[in-house]
Design a protein that fits this description.
The structure holds three protein chains of three kinds. Chain A is of the alpha/beta class. Chain A is built from 19 helices and 22 strands. In chain A, strands 6-7-8-3-9-10 form a six-stranded mixed β-sheet, sandwiched between helices. Chain A has a six-stranded mixed β-sheet with strand order 16-19-20-13-21-22, sandwiched between helices. In chain A, α5 runs parallel beside α6. Chain B is built from 13 helices and two strands, in the order αααααβαααααβααα. The radius of gyration of chain B is 20 Å and the shape is globular. In chain C, a hairpin with a 2-residue loop joins β2 and β3. Chain C contains 13 helices and four strands. By secondary structure, chain C is mainly alpha-helical. The chains are: A alpha/beta, B mainly alpha, C mainly alpha. Chains in contact: A-B, A-C, B-C. Chains B and C meet through α5, α11 and α13 of B and α5, α11 and α13 of C.
Amino acid sequence: MSEQETSILEVREVTKRFPGVLALDNVSFRLRASEVHALVGENGAGKSTLIKVITGVHQPDAGRVLFDGQEVSFASPREAQEAGISTIYQEINLIPLRSVAQNLFLGREPRTSLGLTDTGRMKREAAELLERYGVEADVSAPVRSLGIGVQQMVAIVKAVSLEARVVIMDEPTSSLEAHEVETLFRVIRQLREDGVGVVYVSHRLEELYEICERVTVLRDGKVVHEGNLAELPRLELIATMLGREVPEVEQRTAAHAAREARAGEPVLEAHDLTAYRAPQGVSIDVRRGEVVGLAGLLGSGRTETAKAIFGAQPLESGTVEVDGKDVNPDSPGAAIKSGLAFLPEDRKAEGIIPDLSVRENIIAAALPRLSRGGFVSKKAQDELVERFMTRLDIKAASPDQPVGELSGGNQQKVMLARWLCMEPKVLILDEPTQGIDVGAKAEVQQLIAELAQQGLGVVMIDSEPEELIEASDRVVVLRDGAVVDTLSGDDLDEENLVGAIAGGEPSQPTQDGGDGDER
Amino acid sequence: MSGRTATAGASFDRAAVVSWLRDQGVYVALVLLVLFNLVFTTNFATSGTILGLLSQATPVLLVSLGLALVIGTGGIDLSVGAIMAIASAVVPLYLGYSWPVAVLVALLFCGLAGLLNGFLVAYVGMQPIVATLALFVGGRGFAQVLVDGQLQTISNGSFLSLWRAAPLGIPLPVIIAAVMAVLVGLVVKRTTFGRYVLAVGGNRTASYLSGQPVRGVLLAVYAISGLFAGIAGTLATARLAAGDPSQIGLLIELDAIAAVVIGGTPLTGGRVSIAGTVAGALLMLVISATFVMNNLPPTYAQILKAAIIVLAVYIQQGRRKV
Amino acid sequence: MASATSGAATVEREALRREQIFGAIQRRGALVVLIAVVIVAALTLDAFFTAANIENILLHASFLGLIAVGMTFVIITGGVDLSVGSLAALGGVLAGLSVGAGWPLALIVPTLACGIIGLVNGLLIAKARLPFFIVTLAGLLGFRGLALALSGAQTIPISGPPAFTWFGQGEIFGLDVPIIIMLVAFAVGALVLNRTRYGEALFAVGGSEDAARLSGVPVDRVKIIAYTTSGALSGLAGALVAAWLSAGQPLVGQAWELYAIAAVVLGGTLLTGGAGTMLGSLAGLLLFYTIQNVINQVGTLTSYTQQVVTGAFLIVVVAAQTYLTRKRTY
């Protein structure tokens, strides 16, 4: 922790505000040369905002960014890249139809003396690069034809070959197989030797402990810890991320008191759901009045499982039964008819229709019921909208206000209204409290509890372990698309849940997903 | 940044003006141009002229109505002119049976053409420009093949009266167009189908996840567009008193797209203004008429229209940026 | 991920094989079909495989060929230039109007003027973010109008100088000059596409604009250059037609945009952008004109059949492209 050592990248007291949200609050961050620095935090803690400020996607409202001792302010990621800060994103930013070599050298293709592209040299140098970093791929093959893990490796090689001084990696292993992760770590060690500073963002704690020296923990936009990773035991790291004291985590959570086992009959039975990448043989049962939580890290397949149950994702095999009847929905329309409802995670992209009014958004799924002879019954529609706006306390200037103008919390209530007015049997919620203010969060959570009491079956995805435990009777933990654990009753507490999510002892990355028989 | 508050006042006003222009501009332009003509153009203010102009506008208007629905879903239909040509080729071929049969068969062909477009967009997953480009290229040729490239003069009085009849003094085409406009307006505002169109255009994924029949809606709007183009082609054929696939509907797609866009329906979908579309179609026609009736070369009208279209889309683009 | 080892591996192998087949069809398909059609025609039609007929096909194709080169660039960026036919007409009219000032001007003025128009198209599309089909469709309408206005809707006769008409009617080593110009254009186009940084950038922009931007590719400039080239080549094509006809005809080039698109798409260039070859466009172009020639020779079919056939081809080819390039849903 010597402050005499110069940092290659430094963020000083940066604050960044978005409408309604303080994304970064006086955040300071220091990266030294030849250092691999872990950046950790839950969803919404501010990690991606910090990266975007560093790379020039956002400009800070206060504070400075220093690169190599000089203050910098990049106007775009391209500028940051040219200055020597290279970023590897979770989405693979390659041109799919072009070859590996063409992608690696995009914008800086080697030329012959005549000024024409030297394709021979490009391929040779590309092959050399791949070999240097231990990636096996045909440099002439279109990137699209490679496995997604190899694609990510090519993207990584591209980013590191730009002679950057700082490399930021955002969830780089999300698409990689075990042996590719090893290759990545070799690349990172090589970078470290070359004097490059690496910022490593990942949910996978065992990876962090293997490759990183230092760690900065963000929570709610603030830095809550910075130090050597070796001095921070796993449990303490988790506790810091969640904002709990270690002893508290070790205790059984008091909030999770005895829940009477609701003796309802099974309302949803999903068996052996398998799709292209996720889910992989997942089975979930939900009884009337039961809330089943779905937990797991980013990329564990929770959303895919939820969508598969709802018929929004093509299934290779598996069955779905509602109230004992085989429904096997192949489209959301079919799922809705059999009594399922689904609240997507990404409200903006998949949920609300922003230009349409609150009224239109609420009745979006209920239209078949409100129509007589193809015409929408104004009376029935208005009555329904009024009823649910009141029940859910949706705050809008009027039912005609475009829903895009509402706050996140009210938008979420509109989404809930859309489903509740269908009187579903099973409600599948993907991150229902994400991106909404505390007050609305409480309302939503209360509502879910009420609905369960009234006999609805609920499947809920939530990345906050505390919220999930509070709300659920049972929690199913997924990793790599498969179920690895189920917690209920007295076993359902934060330590166990976080432990199950994070995957037991720090060890090598899983060789095979299997049934998760670890520990 | 300092000075932001100072400029905020000015830019707020500008934004408000631009926004108002976007929504109401077409009505203003139409009224202004009509007033101009009433004053300066001889013979404009006669009922004969006005009714004649309204009649002339009907093919474009009908096509625009169908196109508005397609654009409402976020798509586009470049083949409307070619489909009109198909109608113009089919009608003379079946007039031998009787004119209702001829019209029905023509509409059938056109509806099927539209269904083809819809199928390519909804089920094959092609982009609408690409899907309708094929008919844009091949449709007119197909029509020509049907009639061996010959112009077919029509003397069937009952059929021709589709254009010439004027119950209560109002030309029949105008009545037809007015009825269709009202119908489409009703569909958009009051029917389930109209809701679906706006939802599919507004956020297709959200519409899908709400269980709405996205594919069916897409199939339907393109079929409707084809059908309306068929009606327009039939009327144009009656006006010409001949089936002429080489001329009927030529370049009408631009006028129709212009009418829709200028009328306030964004190309990105999610909002449809039928009243605006009607005003837009009328505006396009009055522009042409202004040139013709004042003995100015019609090619200048063409150039002006092209410029207006680009301007209208540019103004509309601003909405999304904010 | 590794939990579905055998499953994932088979899927990836299948994807690779599909990729290879698709790539082969896309790059060489048109050429193969062209050779097949030529062979069949040569064997079944007496008058087909003569030097005169082949040169006839090539000559007619040469004007559209110039346009197809520019159109290939534009389509690779993911757009389409619908104004090329009208620009060709404008080019012919401008040639007719400026030939009095000397033959070089009769070639330079159309190319330059239409190139500038292409530049404006590019600016509106890349910087003002207007939809390409609106801008170029407006161009189709507006520039035809301009051609008609400038020529007074009359054909402008061109009686000389012979230096100018040579470009349309002359020969070099027995080959018509327009054919040679077309071949040169395709050769240069191929060089630019495959051997320059601009070519790489073009494919990147068409393949994934976001990824291209992040890699530092000047996306706007790439698009603008493509549309400028398309405009300039269209103007030049119009001037050559005028040289060939010895007249500046304002009605020339109707439906040429569609034929150019058809030729390029048939040649394997993806209409959605990001992939294409000059050889493919040339093959598609020649295929288009060969089919027309065959239809004319057979006599029982009208030339309108060609439009239908082209439209049908387009549907099939683009449907195949859509199917083969769709993203795998996870």
